[in-house]
Design a protein that fits this description.
Helix content is about 30%, strand content about 25%. By secondary structure, the chain is of the alpha+beta class. It has two domains: about 300 residues, BirA Bifunctional Protein, domain 2; about 100 residues, Anticodon-binding domain (Rossmann fold, 3-Layer(aba) Sandwich), CATH 3.40.50.800. A hairpin with a 5-residue loop joins strand 5 and strand 6. Helix 1 packs across helix 9 and helix 2 runs antiparallel to helix 6. The radius of gyration is 24 Å and the shape is globular. The structure holds one RNA strand.
RNA sequence: CGGAGUAUAGCGCAGCCUGGUAGCGCACCUGCUUCGGGAGCAGGGGGUCGAGUGUUCGAAUCACUCUACUCCGACCA
């Protein structure tokens, strides 16, 4: 699937990231079919291309963002103790017959046959397959707890795909699955994921609120959705204002320790989606000035579902007393291909996207205002080399185009900082830095530009919140 | 799955009502001049008008069928 190429391999300074040699098909006109801001901007910024209803190609700029989003997810999953693997997209129908979901799942599941007319399906989720892997190898209580995850393409044949990659039929999902000896232990696993999710969204600059949720077809009795507030959100949500801006569990949080106080702290405030909300409870438990009624985008969903799959699929381990124990499971999903538009919904203005540094396709764009001019080219080439050497992720706009076009492109694709070199400033030995988010501009000696940019960018990478 | 709509160059659109040599803007190519907020001038290339059938001397245009896509509602990372 090509998603496992490391981020580093896509960033080879000085070769591919000259815009004149890059592949960035920005659109001037707004495609008429795109209704919401993130979809419009993803098309205009040349991030994705629709191939059919609910199916998208990720073009270089979009793919680069997607990779950064995935990297953050992986880091936080790993930190919490989850272990990454990779399962196939195509699954055998027999597995799903074991759990009883082959018939239950309905038309959303894409069913296919191979040349021998054996039944297969394009996986919409992986509970069955991971349970099969688990039961094949794990036999002892000593091997628990265990949490396995992967990031893989899923396919759900949605009745009505819409909003670009926000709700596509094929989508990437990080799905983690926990295995524990008891409900109490499983709830601890649930709490670990809960905290990992809080950190994951925060690192992307998002405020995501965990809300009690319906367990739906996956089944079970404990479930939270993580919701980013946005006017274009698909569901109405109701929560306590005090959840907004709540401090995120820090990097040194001990995932082997007791996370229940954090969980209790976050879940003690009322928060529910429209499916689950009880208005009288909402009004009773939240004072009027703290009531938030808004719309939100679901960017994650976690479930504890006990033995729903382990029971029919016979996923058991031997306990200390020699007796068989049916394991308790949970599953935990985040959609990277949905997070990208969700981030754009949260961060854009009239001119385009305004990426948070941590997920920006490039951290800064070096704009050569007069490509072809010896002085400008020389200064920019040197600066570009220095910026790369400083470890910054830089796009170099060396195109032979007018200044306006370059500014417009830089604003549209939302690079956090623009470092501008033109003949005018060059005579004075000066560069200009524009902050995309605020519009603020600062002029400084060229020699100080690298250090200044580094100083601006590094604290915002949020690698260590 | 119910309701509504759209389909003409890469993108955005006009032309259709009232049938008669397929157009505009942007993008693209060539040349010159430009170069601090999507540059100007000149020249040029690109279309079986979503598909099929029918009516007609003649169909982008009229009729019928199909397909794809979008939007609104019920379901989902």
């Amino acid at each position: 699937m090509g998603i496992n190429i490391s981020l580093e391999s896509t960033v080879i300074p000085g070769v591919y990231m000259r815009l004149s040699r890059y592949f960035l098909p920005v659109l001037r006109d707004v495609p008429k079919d795109a209704e919401i801001a993130s979809h419009r901007l993803m098309l205009r910024a040349g991030m994705v291309r629709q191939q059919a209803s609910g199916l998208y190609s990720w073009l270089p700029l979009g793919y680069k963002v997607l990779m950064k989003v995935q990297k953050i997810i992986e880091e936080e999953q790993n930190r919490s103790g989850a272990i990454q693997l990779l399962m196939p997209t195509i699954q055998s129908a027999d597995l799903w017959r074991e759990s009883g979901r082959y018939d239950a799942y309905g038309k959303e599941m894409l069913r296919i046959q191979d040349r021998h007319e054996r039944d297969f399906l394009f996986g919409p989720t992986n509970e069955e397959m991971i349970t099969d892997i688990f039961r094949s190898y794990v036999k002892s209580y000593k091997d628990l707890p265990l949490n396995l995850y992967h990031i893989q393409w899923k396919f759900r044949d949605e009745v009505r795909p819409r909003f670009g990659t926000m709700r596509s039929r094929e989508f990437l999902m990080k799905d983690a699955y926990s295995f524990d000896l008891s409900k109490e232990e499983a709830v601890k696993a649930y709490e670990r994921m809960f905290v990992a999710y809080l950190r994951t969204y925060a690192r992307m600059g998002l405020t995501a609120i965990p809300m009690r949720a319906d367990t739906g077809p996956i089944g079970g009795d404990l479930s939270h959705e993580f919701i980013v507030l946005a006017d274009t959100g698909e569901s109405a949500v109701f929560c306590d204002k005090r959840l907004l801006g709540k401090p995120i569990p820090p990097q040194d949080t001990d995932f082997r320790g007791d996370l229940n106080p954090i969980f209790e702290d976050w879940t003690s405030h009322y928060a529910a989606t429209e499916d689950m909300v009880d208005m009288s409870e909402f009004e009773a438990s939240v004072s009027e000035e703290n009531r938030v009624s808004a719309r939100g985008i679901e960017v994650g969903h976690i479930f504890y579902f006990g033995t729903k799959y382990s029971e029919p699929m016979k996923a058991t381990v031997t306990g200390p007393d020699g007796k068989e124990i049916t394991v308790h499971m949970g599953s935990y999903g985040i959609g990277p291909t949905r997070l990208v538009p969700a981030i754009i919904e949260a961060f854009h203005d009239d001119d385009g996207i305004v990426w948070p540094v941590s997920v920006a396709p490039f951290e800064a764009v070096l704009i050569n205002l007069k490509a072809g001019d010896d002085a400008c080219d020389t200064a920019c080439d040197a600066l570009y080399a220095e910026l790369n050497a400083a470890g910054l992720d830089i796009l170099y706009d060396d195109r032979d185009q007018g200044a306006g076009a370059k500014f417009t492109t830089a604003d549209l694709i939302g690079i956090p900082y623009q470092i501008i070199i033109g003949p005018r400033g060059l005579k004075a030995g000066e560069a200009e830095i524009k902050h995309r988010k605020t519009g603020e501009r600062e002029t400084l000696p060229i020699g100080e530009a690298v250090a200044r940019l580094k100083g601006l960018i590094e604290p915002q990478r949020k690698t260590d919140i």
